[in-house]
Structure formats: C-alpha cells, structure tokens
Write a structure and sequence with these properties.
The chain has 4 helices and 6 strands; from the N terminus they run αββββαββαα. The protein has 186 residues and is α+β, with helices and mostly antiparallel strands. Strands 3-4-6-5 form a 4-stranded antiparallel beta sheet, covered by helices on one side. A two-stranded antiparallel sheet has the order 1-2. β3 and β4 form a beta hairpin.
Length: 186
Amino acid sequence: MNDINEYIAIAEESMEKAIDHLNHELAQIRTGKASPAVLGGIMVSYYGTPTPLNQVANVATADARTITIQPWEKNMLGPIEKAIFESNMGMTPMNDGELIRISIPPLTEERRKDFVKKAKALGEEAKISIRNARRDAMEYIKKAVKDGFPEDAGKKSESDVQDTTNAYNEKVDKLILAKEKDIMTI
C-alpha cells in the first residue's frame, strides 16, 4: 500500500511540474501589456557566453506599454540590443546610451488570435504531460493488483489518481481561459 501511495505522490508531483511549466510558458506570451517576463527567454552574449538577459541587466516596466532594460555594464547595451533583434519577437529596442527602452505596440486582432492558439497548444501539451503521469500511475497500480495487492484497494487508488488528473486538467483549463481573456482584452 505504501508503494502505491508513493507512486501516486510521484504522479501528482509530475502533474504539478506540468502546471509550473505551463505558467512559465504562458508568462512569455505577450498580451499587449509591458511585462519583464516577455523577455525571459532572451539570451545575451556576455563575454562570449550565452547568459539570460535578467543576469546582465535590470529589466523593469516603466509604464503599461514600456519595458526598460538597464545593463549593469554600459558595454552590454549593444549585445542586449542585438539579442532582442535576433529574438524575432516583433519588438524594436531603442538605445539612448544609458538604457534600452522597448515600446510594446498594441496587438492586432490577428496577432491576438495567434497568441490564443499558442496558449491553447501549450495547454494541450500540459494536459498530455498530466495524462502521461496518470498512465504511469495506473499501470503501476494494475501491476500491483496482479502481484497480490487487494483489488478493491487498487480500484480506490485508480479512482484517486483519476480524481487528481481531473483536478489538474481543470487547473490547465482555468489558466488557459485566464490567459485567453488577458490576450483578447484591449
């Protein structure tokens, strides 16, 4: 019984990781509002080493439509600007010699719909990860029942795993719905 509970806990931990990953990925989808998270995946060449942008500069929002990037070393202005251009995010950095400003343009209806599609695809990936964790736990329980674990306790464990899976799928749906609303709000 203890083994099965451990395996169910491992499956639930896997499901939680899928939710965390989804949250991280959704934060990088821009919604028309300035957010430092949008630049989270950008790597800057720091003395020849690819380094995350937030480790070579202070990234902040000046207002609802402007992101400011204040490098800790002035010689990093050029590499940061280059990295933003190469990221193909559709944003143009403006370098004033002290800091870099990025104005977030309002999203077109078509671009908003593309972002919603991307968010839904990320949600589907999270659900696949959750289903995989469920499948692994169910297989383990079935094997344990075959090896002598009481069948009624096995059914109860399977029911628990399914309930957990349903709860995590609902979390994914809520996250995607909230992100869709955020993207489509002008």
